[in-house]
Amino acid sequence: MGLFDSIKKGDEKPKRKPPSAVKKGVSPERTDVDVMPLEEDIITKEVIKPQIRYLKKIVVTSYSDLERISDELQEGNIVLVDLTPLEVKPEILEKVAEQLKGMVNALDGQAAKICKQEIKLILVPADIRIAK
């Protein structure tokens, strides 16, 4: 007997009614109950709010800019560092680059160069990783 044989013949099986004992045990649906949010739901929504992060560009011209970069990384922001103004001072550029590397390692973040011609770096906090 195939799938369509019962359709072609018009054979329908009568539906069985549930026994009266089952009908008595099942209560009808209540429609007069108001659904109110639980206190836990409200607290959960407050706790799991997405954190707003920023992508900030900082042009480094002196050592004082390093503190600003450190603060931004500690807040969880991504920092684009432009070191091109320091190209004319290679000794300062080298020291700043070493300090940036140490800062990123201390904060468990990552750093990567993003431009070939200019000296631009991207620094990310600990909970973001760079796919290299």
How would you summarize the topology of this molecule?
Layout (H helix, E strand, L loop, with lengths): L4 H5 L10 H6 L13 H9 L7 E5 L4 H11 L3 E5 L7 H17 L3 E4 L6 E5 L8
Parallel strand pairs: 1-2
Antiparallel strand pairs: 2-4, 3-4
Please name the defining characteristics of this protein.
132 residues, alpha+beta, Translation Initiation Factor IF3
- Order of strands across the widest beta sheet? 1-2-4-3
Q: What's the helix-strand series?
A: HHHEHEHEE
Q: Percent helix among the residues?
A: 25-40%
CATH class of one domain reads: Alpha Beta
**What gross morphology would you assign?**
elongated
Mean pLDDT: 81
Can I get a quick summary?
The protein has 132 residues and is α+β, with helices and mostly antiparallel strands. 36% of the residues lie in helices and 14% in strands.
Structure description:
By secondary structure, the chain is α+β, with helices and mostly antiparallel strands. The chain has helices spanning 5-9, 20-25, 39-47, 64-74, 90-106, and strands spanning 55-59, 78-82, 110-113, 120-124. The chain has a domain at 55-124: SepF-like protein (Translation Initiation Factor IF3). The protein has a 4-stranded mixed sheet with strand order 1-2-4-3, covered by helices on one side. It is elongated and about 95 Å long.
